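To whoever is on call:

I kicked off a structure prediction for a single chain this morning and the downstream step that reads the tokens threw a length-mismatch warning. I double-checked the sequence; it's 109 residues and nothing unusual in it as far as I can see. Pasting both halves so you can look.
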Amino acid sequence: MTNPTPSLFDDRPAPHNGTDTSKAAARAVRPKAPNLRAVVFERIRAAGQAGKTCDQLTREIGRPASSISARLNELAARGFVTDSGMRRPTQYGRPARVYVAGAGRVAHV
């Protein structure tokens, strides 16, 4: 019997757009994605209802926005984070989604 509960640490292939370069990038990130996903989730969980934007996480964690955004998309698809409905300006002054831990994920991973 398989576990229907999504995990931060599963090793699913990263999404790609089908091009050779995208497939190569997906293969390269696969061993690193679970740990980065956990770091991103922990930062969001620790922020509580204030949440975090991709821009904030990028600067705090020191990884490219594309890597953080991809992990946020994975976390959202698995129900670990959700768009709070709030918007916060990025370092460039543009509005950005504020993510918070998904219901039932604040105290339990």
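Update from on-call: the warning came from a stale cache, not from the record. Cleared it. Sanity check on the structure: The chain has four helices and two strands.
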